[in-house]
Amino acid sequence: MDALLMEICSPFQKASTFVIKTVHGAFQEYLFFFHLQKENVMLKQRITELQKENHQMKEMALANERLKRLLEFREKISTSAVAAEVIGQDPSSWFRSMTINKGEKDGVRKEMAVISPEGVIGQILKTSPYHSIVLLITDYNSAIDSIVQRTRAKAIVEGLGENRCQLKYLLRKEEVVVGDVVVTSGLSGNFPKGLMVGEIKKVEKHGHGVFQYAELVPSVDLTKLEEVLVITGSSLPLQEEKGKKTKKTKK
Amino acid sequence: MKRVILPLFVGILFLTLQTTLFASLPIQRVRPDIMLILTLYLALSYPPISGGILAFLMGFLMDLFSGNSFGLYTLSRPFLFYVAQLFKDRFYMGDFSFQFFFGFIFTLFEGLLILLLLNALNPGPLGHLYPLFFTFLLPQSFFTGLITPILFYLFNKGSSLLSNQHGMGIGERA
Questions:
Q1: A195: which residues sit within 8 A by CB, 6+ positions away?
Q2: Which of residues A73 and A131 earns the better pLDDT score?
């Protein structure tokens, strides 16, 4: 009798246990998903924070690298220079200039040379106590006394308005080819001698004039500038250039 | 006084935008001239004397922050202001397509004026600047034209909100 009753009741017990387990499981699963969802939101937030942090770290590393190069370059040039940050571009599209965060209070004066480790950027056009306007070499009001590094041919680098310059008063007899590097001559007094200006991209000898036409692309990407150096002291030749000269005299 | 100080602040804000945000965009070469749009708006909604002084100050601000040492914008902006004032009561300025055309034509006109002045004032020939008419002046004028109705609408909203003087804005005046 006991056994019979047990056999009758057990399936009900089994079914009840199954239902309870299923409901409990479903509830557990619901709780698990609920937590999972919360955790997911939290993790997503954390990922965003870490991504932001990572981005900031990358930016800092890049800025650090740029400043390190600028500092190394500043040590190379044997004259006093002030590092400045670019804070704005020219408001018009006809002219090429930019605003920097250093002015008269930092020793910046009109016509001082503005350079970067990659080469010449321009010269100071206007100053105020804490800010200055730099006239870029690509502006057609800009003119810099230069020489072609290979042939030592003299010329004036003038801006063409766009991201290119022309070599003016380059004698026709000078053998200048595409790819020649143009450096500062140091004669204008503002720029140290031997600083890279750009690379010749086009040479034309049309007509019967005394001069030939050459176009160059600046060595510095003027659209991506963030930090620059303003030469505040008297310009002296670059240490590298000086080193080369002493070696030559020794030989 | 508020009517003079506020556009000046807006001008400084626009100049900041033009030299920083717009200059960092990929289209920076043909970025719209929002300072010019502001000058045009002043021409349509301000009296000749106070508006003229504001236009002069806008041009002066442009010259101050640009590599131009001749003061071309200080000359061109008041000039554009008075030319635009001639259209003030002759056309219905509330129409978006007309506002686009208005911005487009005046940007083009100022570009040509600057080009002429540059050629007249520079000792050397600037023939290489003429191709810029197609490569950047036309696209820039187009973009400025596109932005003009949007900014005019915002200026109208702003001026009516601030002064509560309905009928001051261009669209509402008509």
A1: A115, A119, A120, A183, A184, A238
A2: A131
